Structure formats: structure tokens, C-alpha cells
Amino acid sequence: HPFSITSAPGDDYLSIHIRQLGDWTQELKRVFSEACEQPEAGKSGLLRADENTKTSLPKLLIDGPYGAPAQDYRKYDVLLLVGLGIGATPFISILKDLLKNIVAMEEQADLVSDFSGNSDMSAATSEQPALNKISPKKRRSTLKTTNAYFYWVTREQGSFDWFKGVMNEVAELDQRGVIEMHNYLTSVYEEGDARSALITMVQALNHAKNGVDIVSGTSVRTHFARPNWRKVFSKTLTKHANARI
User: Fold this and answer.
1) CATH ID of 72-104+140-239, from 3.40.50.2300, 3.30.750.210, 2.70.210.12, 3.40.50.80
2) What Pfam families is this protein classified in (predicted)?
3) Which of 17, 33, 120, 243 is most buried (CB neighbours < 10 A)?
């Protein structure tokens, strides 16, 4: 059974996505559903528990963590993340962590700019050596990653329900256009094929009118068939010619 941590390192909680696939995982959800708070409308859909939860919680034993290639993502200028089915879970965590780091660093940079740009605060800024020594440009450079492209490929439409709330959350937080997300449903004929023309037309109209994709139920529009990887790689290289991807 896939058990995947989807919370970011900076989060003050631990979130785990578990796919129900048999009696054991169905019973696991039942036990936690009775103990945890039910998801709020418009939230991620996760069952939640904290110090305010009144009922007794099941005892958990967590072994790990173990190393993974995803831990080194900060060494790259641009991220190209490809997830297949439930295998997308580590990348959800990366996207959330990347956004939080960029927002935090830009807020720090703006704070430095406010101090250094205000002549009336010259006396006060002299008492803030830690802020004055670090320029906004240098603060931004401490995080190498500037952009991320996430491609989620799955065969089953129901798979999009796993991360519907999380993907909407990422899209809402990404006010700077740092992350570009793409969903691909391989069980439908590719766009341009007459056999998928009707659903493509309805999908485009609904997304243009309501901003919601009818396939995934999120603001991220779903493409059909498999990605054209040659085109994806070529486009990414052209856009970020001198970057480490």
C-alpha cells in the first residue's frame, strides 16, 4: 500500500496520503475517521488531529526517515518534476516547501529594502547590522531554485481526487507564477483526436467560464494522452538556457 508523506519540511504538522486498497487500509481510514476532525469545506480533505482533538488517537510508530533523491532539489535552478499516479506524492511536498521558502526569502528581502530605502530610519538601521549586511539580491541568491514544472500523469480520473485540495492550495499560494502544473489523463485520446473532441470542447468552455477543470476538479487544466516529452524538454531548455535543471 502506498504511504507517502506530503507535508513540507517547514510545516507544523505531518500529513500522510494513504490509498485505500483493500480491507486493511479501509479499516485504517475508519479508525482515524472516528478519532480525527472531519475536513472543512474548501480545505484539502485531509482528516486532521491536533492537541485539541478530544477523542483518544491511535498509537503510531514511524520508522525513518530514509534518504531520497528529492532531498537535493535545492541544488537546482529549475525543477522538472514528473509523477506517475500515487508516485506524485513526494513532489507535492517539494512544491509546498519551495513556495514557502521563496515567500519567506522575498519577505526578508523586502524588509531589508524598507530599512535601507528610508532615509528617516537611518539612525534606526544603524542598530540593525544583521539586516543591513545582507542585500536583497544576496538573500534571494541563497535559494537556487527559481521555477518548478510539475507533470502528473495518471490513467484513472479518480486519482485527481487524491491531491485536489493540495493542488488548489499550491495554485492559490503561487502568486508569483513560480510553479507550473500540468495534469495528464492517459485513458483519453489525445487532444485533436475526433474521439475526444467533445470532452475537450466542454472542458475548455468550463475552464474559461469558471476557472475549474471538469476532469480534475481543480484550477489546473488536464491534458489528454501522454505528454510529448521531447517538446517538454526542448521548451524547458529554451526558456532556461543557462540554468541547472
Assistant:
1) 3.40.50.80
2) FAD_binding_8 (PF08022), NAD_binding_6 (PF08030)
3) 17
